[in-house]
TrEMBL record:
The lineage of its organism: Bacteria, Pseudomonadati, Bacteroidota, Flavobacteriia, Flavobacteriales. Residues 107-322 form the Beta-lactamase-related domain. It comes from Maribacter spongiicola. This is CubicO group peptidase (Beta-lactamase class C family). Residues 45-65 are annotated as: Disordered. Pfam families: Beta-lactamase. It comes from the Bacteria. InterPro entries: Beta-lactam-related, Beta-lactam/transpept-like, Diverse_Enzym_Activities.
Length: 395
């Protein structure tokens, strides 16, 4: 057997360990492998390309633990890692796919240390198709707010009126001036959430109900106005600022598009996964600082107030003592998603758009699609059912 054929064979076997071999070729390879092992024991032997510089054969080399960052200039290139290599239970994957397909899923991805372990598309949906993030896109706005503060365009303790102008609401000026950017980030503006349309940003929809910071309610209109705060403070188009500061530096694609009163982000599932990697690396992309303010990042991904400990700066947080949900004033005891890791934080959007990030496991999980059951804002029963199935694979 010539050298080229031997090398090709070695590579093939290592990459495809389950490949069936002819008896004659298999016996030949065992002899060849034995000779390589014996040669490697010699004190003057050089490591081959198959063993690497450490001299350790690939099959016993340690799992990669450093974060992988998919290249920016080559969007379709992305390193993968097998469930077998990770020691995950591949037998349970069919149950996961059945659940996803029967709950209107279009795209699903799991990353481990940045590498793709599972990537599955359903129906006619393709990897380069764009999908609405819905309120999972609030995470993007939260990080962009931190970047704008870091660049000294504003401080989140500033009054919202400083950047929207006085009279952006129907409240008396004294009440309006009490609302800050931080109140917009934490859903504590005190604006009346009993209006007919909580998405409405018209003056007549923005009225007083509670003093700021005294009540938590998932009110979308104050969040949407954050986009105007950022655009006015930076004196630039919101999409342009986002593209310059987050999208382009990490190789995302996508766009915020006005849908009714809402500003909805659309992108591919892989772009959402890229943003997940950025989060797990606390605002750093392969050595490039996207958000350097550690204090802001920690505040963003931890309890931002004591009214709803399961909410940060537009991020949902797991593992807290209690939580509140959209469309209700009721407080619930326990963790937001009991089956999910306690340190998980997430972007959760209407109709079960999901971006889960788990620092302790270095996992990013993406789900895009239609509503699994009811059309709910943010968290739903789907979260806990999905994580129950994920656990059967990764544990």
């Amino acid at each position: 057997m010539d050298k080229f054929t031997c090398n090709l064979y070695l590579i093939t076997v290592y990459q495809y360990p389950n490949l069936k071999l002819t008896m004659k070729f298999s016996q030949y390879f065992r002899l060849l492998a034995l000779s390589i092992i014996l040669a490697s024991c010699s004190s003057d032997s050089e490591p081959t390309s198959e063993t690497g510089k450490s001299g350790i054969p690939p099959e016993v080399a340690p799992l990669p633990t450093e974060t992988y960052f998919p290249p920016i200039s080559r969007a379709n290139e992305w390193e993968t890692i097998s469930m077998e290599t990770l020691g995950w239970n591949e037998d349970q994957v069919s149950n996961l796919y059945f659940f996803l397909e029967n709950n209107n899923t279009d795209a699903f991805i799991i990353l481990k240390d940045g590498r793709i372990v599972i990537e599955k598309y359903f129906g006619d949906f393709k990897s380069d198709d764009n999908h609405a993030w819905n309120s999972a896109g609030k995470n993007l706005t939260a990080m962009l707010t931190g970047i704008a503060q870091e660049e000294e365009y504003f401080d989140i303790t500033d009054a919202t009126s400083t950047y929207l102008g006085e009279g952006w609401s129907s409240m008396p000026l004294e009440q309006e001036l009490n609302i800050t950017i931080k109140n917009q980030l934490t859903m504590t503006t005190g604006l009346d959430y009993t209006v007919d349309d909580i998405f409405c940003t018209d003056l007549e929809c923005l009225t007083y109900l509670n003093d700021p910071s005294t009540f938590w309610y998932y009110h979308n209109a104050p969040y949407t106005l954050l986009d105007d705060v950022i655009a006015n403070a930076t004196d630039t188009d919101f999409n342009s600022y986002f593209s310059e500061k987050i999208k382009e530096p990490i190789g995302m694609q996508g766009l915020f598009i006005k849908v009714g009163y809402n500003n909805v982000f659309f992108s591919s599932a892989r772009s959402m996964a890229r943003f997940g990697i950025l989060n797990l690396n606390q605002g750093n992309w392969d050595g490039t600082s996207i958000l350097s303010d550690e204090s802001y990042f920690n505040a963003m991904t931890n309890s931002s107030q004591n009214l709803n400990p399961s909410y940060g700066y537009l991020y949902w947080l797991n593992g807290k003592s209690s939580f509140r949900l959209p469309s209700t004033v009721e407080e619930f005891t326990g963790s937001l998603i009991p089956n999910a890791p306690a340190d998980m934080y997430a972007g959760l959007g209407l109709n079960d758009q999901k971006l889960y990030m788990v620092p302790s496991l270095d996992l990013v999980v993406v789900r895009l699609g239609g509503a699994s059951n009811e059309e709910l804002l943010g968290p739903s029963n789907f979260d806990n059912e999905l994580w129950g199935l994920i656990n059967q694979i990764i544990e």
